[in-house]
Amino acid sequence: MENSEGVKIESTVVTEEPLISALDIALFVVIITVAYFWYFKRDKQSSSSEKKPYTIQPSSLSSIEQTSNSSFIKKLKSTGRSLVVFYGSQTGTAEEFAGRIAKEGARYKMKGMVADPEECDMADLVEMKEIQKSLAIFCIATYGEGDPTDNAMDFYEWLRNGDADLEGLNYAVFGLGNKTYEHYNEIAIYIDQRLEELGATRVHEIGLGDDDANIEDDFVSWKEKLWESVCSHYGIEETGEESNIRQYKLVDCSEVLPERIFSGEISRLKSYENQRFPFDVKNPYLSKIAVNRELHKSGDRSCMHIEFDIDGSKMRYDTGDHVAVYPKNSSELVDKIGELLNADLDAVFSLLNTDEESSKKHPFPCPCTYRTALTYYLDITSNPRTHIMKELIEYASDPKDQEKLKLMASSTPEGKKEFHEWILRDNRNIVHILEDLPSVKPDLDHLCELLPRFQCRYYSISSSPKVYPKSIHITAVLVNYTTPTNRVNKGVATNLLAQLIPTNDELPQPTIPIYIRRSQFRLPPKSQTPIIMIGPGTGLAPFRGFIQERDYARKEGREIGEMVLYFGCRKKDEDFIYENELQEYVANGTLTKLHLAFSRDQPEKKYVTHLLEQNADELWNIIGEKSGHLYVCGDARSMAKDVHSIIVKVVMEKGQMTNSQALNYVKKMEQQKRYSADVWS
Fold this sequence. Notes:
By secondary structure, the chain is an alpha/beta fold.
């Protein structure tokens, strides 16, 4: 007969079977042989390793250091500190505020320490009561749609899911948010309430900073009252000593070998020369610019369509994600600082933390030249905060300049007014301040310590990976504007991107560091679900990717739901971006309806919000009767708020609900991810 593999087997009759067959013996011999070699080979390797000098690989060292450094309680105890300031920061502002609080603690005989919750074992909070007159302060930003910042995520989850006994922990919270967003300071408010629920004692009421107004003013006002509460709670008094103590000390690095000097890398030395996957905020990918073309047809404004080449990077993105772009400051501004301060920008230096226990040894990658620091690592174009005014006072040789800086650094009504008018309203950056107060000549290393860290810029991706798996597209308006002092301020990222034009010859193509940031702005899981997209101007960007993805599905033979797009711009013949693409999608049936509002093509201005009100029946049909999804992208300050109000009104009228019921209906849509916003202020 034959077995299943077609091999002939002779049929035999077995009268008696031995206890151990030949096959059993063979298997036993094999097992013994393998065990023998495994044992003696392992023993040999073990003996060999014992003869070698003991070394710790960098990765192992890092993990060991992280474990030993994760106990902030041990650091507090070993250094005689009683104040720890944690920060949850996405752009660096919360970290900056935390540093200012920790520094001021010295005025109240509370030696402070700044801590990143991501690098700490936050369960140690239960031991804070062991330190006399101890205080934990949390500077916490709310990010995205009411989310914790990346470095505060684990702490947030620990609070949510844990039930630690925090009795004896004294705390205060300052939140950083933006009132134009729905989830204003949601994370800070939750942390403040949750700490109290777990038994901790609130020393001072929560502070809520609004970045849409004047978050610096909010912070300074809260901080002043915080110290009053601290003095009252602990029975202490302010020493009156100023706290202008340097956090970092200057180290001359003129003898450092060139290959050990940072030249713009975000974290790892020579990372742009030796790229390693995965790519993220600390390890961006150096992408080539594949396409850079103008989208506006006429006029004095510019809108760019840019494509980043990611072929071979192993990076993957989803429709609706954001791409982070790392720009650099203009050489003109950098050179101006060197000229104003009579400094050698090519001198190599390092700033070393005077606090040996701090996990943050340098404020930015060191060593580097001053030119590199000012070009890649420091923000020299934003409005400086009041603490910088205070630090600059000692460098002013003209009494008038001194008095002006003192006034702006003060918390008096007159000082706040002067700061608001001279810095914020007139939109002065550090270069403008040094120009307009010519006697102010700070040491360049101190200025580098004071200036905030340069941040990457985020753009909504305007392509679908289904159609463009090897490239990422963005749609960006060139930012240039004249300030009240008749200076021209230029958007750092867009003005750099405008210069990165790919060539058709064999010359190296322009490059820029990028990475992908995940988003919750997603198409419905089912392609048949109908959607409404509202995106005036560059708010169209993510919807271009949405439409591409649905068009791809349609061409594959899959059923797709209705797609309705509301787009608006100034003039049809001037800034109607991607016009031909959109008309083609309408023609082939992917885009069901295209509602257009050209605000300046007629005497009375017309916006997408006007069209929404006119199409209330269509709106309710999709979001109410068909349980479709609604998306908004663009300006948060006015457009997104107006859209929200219109949606509530339509739900009331067409759904026959009360105002309260309509608000709850829209809230439920948001919770179900049927109403999503990708907005900016």
